[in-house]
Automatic annotation (TrEMBL):
Signal peptide limits: 1-19
Pfam families referenced in this protein's UniProt entry, alphabetically: Kelch_1
Gene3D superfamilies (alphabetical): Kelch-type beta propeller
Keyword field contains Oxidoreductase: no
InterPro entries (UniProt xref): Kelch-typ_b-propeller (IPR015915), Kelch_1 (IPR006652)
Keyword terms: Kelch repeat, Repeat, Signal
Protein's name in the database: Uncharacterized protein
Source organism of the structure: Potamilus streckersoni
Length: 184
């Protein structure tokens, strides 16, 4: 199980198409970074989320193509293992754990930003496609607040957003009312 006093951060540097598989972990009590177990796949623009005390690395770009593969880091064994791949290849995706499921939103498939949303159930090891977001988004910030998933900002291939336009809950999409929409 993850200890709350440690933060695990991934660094992926893209340099002339190079992606990394290395993982670094920061211990705030001693103020030191250490190298953690490397993933089996090189990934940049990867989605990362914690679910049920396990760290997931989702999709990304390996320097050649977008990925649909998913790896999970198990703290007790200190090892990465592969789980079922997503339905869609994507990098620059948003990912978050909620209610014992892992949600993946948007991203980039190598041609365009995506609206699609998938949910992973670790109990069945199955990905399911959900209803799409209202906007195409890659590199969006994604978080949970009061049981809802918020997709904030990102890039739609045409412009940069700076407002929250919608939120997801486990039973569907909630749209913002027009009076709260700050878009020009």
């Amino acid at each position: 199980m993850f200890r709350l006093e440690h933060v695990c951060i991934f660094f992926f540097l893209l340099s002339v198409g190079d992606s990394l598989s290395t993982v670094e972990s920061f211990d705030p009590f001693v103020g030191r970074w250490t190298i953690a177990e490397a993933m089996s796949t090189m990934r940049s623009r990867v989605g990362v989320a914690v679910l049920n005390g396990k760290l997931y690395a989702i999709g990304g770009y390996d320097g050649m193509e977008r990925l649909s593969t998913v790896e999970v880091f198990e703290q007790d064994s200190r090892r990465w293992r592969k789980v079922t791949s997503m339905n869609c290849k994507r990098s620059a995706l948003g990912a978050v754990g909620l209610n014992k499921k892992l949600y993946v939103l948007g991203g980039y498939d190598g041609v365009a930003s995506l609206r699609s949303v998938e949910v992973y159930d670790p109990e069945t090891n199955v990905w399911t496609i959900l209803s799409s977001m209202l906007k195409h988004r890659s590199a969006a910030g994604v978080t949970v607040l009061d049981g809802e998933i918020f997709a904030c900002g990102g890039h739609d291939g045409l412009s940069i957003f700076d407002s929250i336009f919608e939120s997801f809950i486990s039973i569907g999409l909630i749209q913002r009312s027009p009076e709260h929409d700050t878009r020009p």
